Amino acid sequence: MTDLPLKARCHCGATQFEVTEAPTELGDCNCSFCSRRGALHAYYRPAQFRLTTARDRVSTYQWGHYLGQHHHCAICGCPTYSEFPSFDNGAPDFDDPRISINARLLVDFAWDQLPVRKYDGKAY
What CATH number has the domain spanning 6-116? Predict the structure, then answer.
């Protein structure tokens, strides 16, 4: 059994966050950005996510249509989490945001035991 909330941290520990429940599957996106980052994603609603360190330790990158905010540690550079509108119905829904965490950062959690769903981000 995993202790909740699940805690996560970047390499240097300057950026830390927690989520209220364990992921049951992970996402692997093949878009030009995600494939270079190497993160495996777990998706949450904003109420399920809490940044536990100072926001000024987090840097943000946006590109393309600027729909998402990709965050990384300002100190060590590890990709940490992203903020997006929901795409559940195919189009961006800004009234239903999502947080995508880098599940590789979860502390004492066997993320490598979860199924991985491939996402065709190149198609967008």
Answer: 2.170.150.70
Q: Exposed/middle/buried for 123, CB within 10 Å: 0-12, 13-18, 19+?
A: exposed
Token pair for residue 8?
Answer: 């996560």
Q: Considering the entire predicted model, what is its pTM?
A: 0.90
Question: Which pair of tokens denotes residue 109?
Answer: 């959690």
Sequence ranges of the domains in the chain:
6-116
Of 4-13, 102-111, 113-122, the range with the lowest mean pLDDT is 113-122
Q: From CA 38, how far away is CA 51, in angstroms rounded?
A: 21
